[in-house]
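Second attempt. The first submission of Xylanolytic transcriptional activator regulatory domain-containing protein had a stray character pasted in from the spreadsheet, which I only caught after the job came back as garbage. Lesson logged: always re-copy from the clean sequence file. Corrected sequence (547 aa) follows.
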Amino acid sequence: MLLDCQNRLSFVGRSTAHSFMHHIRNTIEKHDGPSEFTADSNWSGLPERLPVTPRMQSFLPPSTTTSLIEFYFNHVRSFIDIVNPEAVSLTLYRFQNNPNEVQGPDRCIFYLVLAVALALDPGDSAHSPSPEFKHQLFAIAEGLAHPTRTFEKSQHHDDVLWPLQALALMSFFMLSVSMRNTAYEYCGKSHHICMQTNEANKGSGRAVRVAYALGIHRGHESEINQFPANEELRVLRRNVWRSLFVLDRFLAASLGRPFAISDNEYSESSFRPPNRPSSPNKVSKRDMLDPPIDACKMIGHIVNNIYSCDKVAIEVPNQMLGYLEAHPSFQNNEFFTTSDLMPTVSQIHIHLLGFYTNILLCRPFFLLSFMGTNASDGIETQINRLSERCVSQSLQAVEMVKRGFHANLLCHSDPLALYVLFEAALVLLSSTYADIYAREEHLSLVKDAMFILKTWYTSSPYAGQFASKLDLFRQDVEHQKQVKATRQASRRQAHKVKREPMTTYEPSQYRSPFHPMPRDSLVSPRDSRRGSATANHAMVKQEADGY
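This time the job returned cleanly.
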């Protein structure tokens, strides 16, 4: 239980960074005493309030609108694929030539696409629209997609796909403007936490419900003969559902909330795009969502089988780790061994989801090492492997974001990169503090992550908060390193002083009190609480206070 933004106790699931940091802070405070970092209990985030937006006076110039639409499809289709580029381009043409003829559904989707693009790329402040403009677009689109005008009034399934597209876009927009709780409500279930939104939001949390009503979650079972007749529409229906699944898994895991889409409610066929006529002149992009779907399926298994359990058989994470290590889409060695090979935005998103899934899987076992939990020799070896994987994946995640940032691919806050960068930096700081597979470059990478987060602050208030949290932790880590260096110097000096007068004693009468620690020890010399092997040899018991 942690304090929320209104100073109320609120339950936070184990899969969140908040829960991880709660245990890190408690362990540090017990061992080294209080500090500014351990005393900082406000990990609940920021209040989520929609700004009061004035009436839109003028629209964007045609060139700006075109570039924003191009930016949208270049930056989001590897995470969500909700609208067809051809349909948006047609709406743009109609909007520029005769805006009064653009129908409400097309206008709603069009405005939301532009709002998301503006949230991800504010542009040059001298030539870009005001920061409120994206919220103005969102407010108009939300009014067009009000429940009394859409699903409840529709008579045909084909007509109600666009409200589902709109709800998914609204969820992604809220995620892009650092309002994850609000995004979660549009996507899945309603949990009024840190929420102060307008009256229209009372219809939130409808996306999964609408998708269930359409039967999209059952795949081909709900697609009777010649319904829908348009093959492109069938593909779009599947992609909207797949995008909704990715949003649900990522939002629920990062917030510690229940999944809106249960594993026993959907058909596997719903995640496979229906067969479409092959065209030698056109490359289908429907498979771009396959790696995110695979990662989010694994996220669901991790949360349900590790974070939701008090005891975990060590074979469970080992099997999951084997799957992730063998998955071809999450192999990223070429980006770190070849300096001139720069990943695209789509590749960055795919790999960041892979990094996040690996970190989520291995972090509970890394935390066991950090807290000095006893384990039998056989279990400890496997915990070591998972801990090392957690650290190495965190390091590569920071490196990936750095390369994207310096290549101007992530020059503004990206919702996926923002959260994964923070999670990875926390692991690197924890690794350095406890000397768990720590490397010299960890602190410099954390400083780079803090610099990127501070740069993103103009487009995401959470980026500044994350940077300040990391800075407090970094100060404790550097202080710990100084204390450790001083102690080691004192011990070396004391050892030298004691050795000279003892040369007259028989060797059998003297034994050094210093026992060298193995170089790859999980727990630092400061944390010598490992005793007898008390853990169950077949099960790893997670900490009672959270993990």
